[in-house]
Amino acid sequence: MQKDKIVLSGMRPTGKLHLGNFHGALKNWVALQDKYNCYFFVADLHSLTTAYEHTENLAENSRNMLIDWLTAGLDPEKSTIFIQSDVPEVSELNTLLGMITPLGWLLRNPTYKEQIQELLKQKYAGQLDEKSLGEKINSIAGDEEISSFGFLGYPVLMATDILIQQAAYVPVGKDQTAHLEIARDLARRFAEIYGEAVFTEPAPLYTEVARVPGLDGRKMSKSYHNAINLGEDLDSVRKKVMTMFTDPNKKKATDPANPEGCVVYAFHRIYNPNAAKRCEECKAGALGCVACKKELFALMEPEMKAFSERRKLFENDEALLQKIVAIGKDRARANAAKTLATVKKVMRITR
Ligand code: TRP
């Protein structure tokens, strides 16, 4: 037990979560609740760093994500669950930390360029050939719609989220390594400049997680339409399992096949203690895909049923949701306010 250590993590609200989010992150968060003093928040301000023109679904997406977190087992009695924009202290510290962040750190951040590439690809899909797209990517500085001040400052805001709560550990995916490094560097830089170490230096908390492919074998993603949602109704889940991608060389139930790359097998590895046995049977042509899929669904069914019931419960209890975020907000603000007060004192901006 390290209840004195703070763990903090957040997700940008993309709407309803799927099994990829569950097995890839949420399940781990749920387990961390019993070991640490956990803070989990909906990073709604972060979604404005790219989707600032599309705020029409922001509140709804935050609400859906919150419901999914509770469905998955995040527990407001154990953890502080809050919405980023409910904590104005974050925006204030973000301004202060922005002042001491060298521009070079942000311009060199590898995820900055990658994300710009991704955004440009989406924006010009089918309109530009590879070469013109490449030129466009190289002239990103001139693309005023995509490259905003807030977008470049994404890592500063993320560092603020972490440092303001004095988090010791941050469970994130490997893709967030560079961001976390900036948070650590900022903690140190602040101490160097003002002569007082106000912030806890946060360490990443990487956990081995199962990779969950989408129904078609690509990464599970909302935009690929290959996802199974948390709390999705059972009939729909059953149908989706029956359409999962399998070895295309296996035409008949008795054909021997290769389970590597088979989506059904990837799921068996998560849900079936006998996965290794099924793998051998498949290779030997002793297991047909239909039977294999039926067994998988039966194994997933109890958890999916529980999710679906829990999700409905939260969905239909607006008062409970409001109460949960109100409590989270109070706790997160109280903790943040302490850090902010010290920062302002050390920076001599109090009167
Ligand atoms: N950048 C994170 C992501 O895209 C989300 C995030 C924002 C975050 N602030 C954070 C994660 C602070 C951990 C800690 O996944």
TrEMBL record:
InterPro entries, per the entry: aa-tRNA-synth_I_CS (IPR001412), aa-tRNA-synth_Ic (IPR002305), Rossmann-like_a/b/a_fold (IPR014729), Trp-tRNA-ligase (IPR002306), Trp-tRNA_synthetase (IPR050203)
Record key words, sorted: Aminoacyl-tRNA synthetase, ATP-binding, Ligase, Nucleotide-binding, Protein biosynthesis
Enzymatic reactions: tRNA(Trp) + L-tryptophan + ATP = L-tryptophyl-tRNA(Trp) + AMP + diphosphate + H(+)
PROSITE patterns, alphabetized: AA_TRNA_LIGASE_I (PS00178)
A GO term from the CC aspect: cytosol
Enzyme superclass (EC): ligase
GO molecular function: ATP binding; tryptophan-tRNA ligase activity
BP-aspect Gene Ontology terms: tryptophanyl-tRNA aminoacylation
EC number: 6.1.1.2
SUPFAM superfamilies according to UniProt: Nucleotidylyl transferase
Family: Belongs to the class-I aminoacyl-tRNA synthetase family.
Descriptive protein name: Tryptophan--tRNA ligase
Organism: Candidatus Avelusimicrobium gallicola
Lineage, top ranks: Bacteria, Pseudomonadati, Elusimicrobiota, Elusimicrobia, Elusimicrobiales
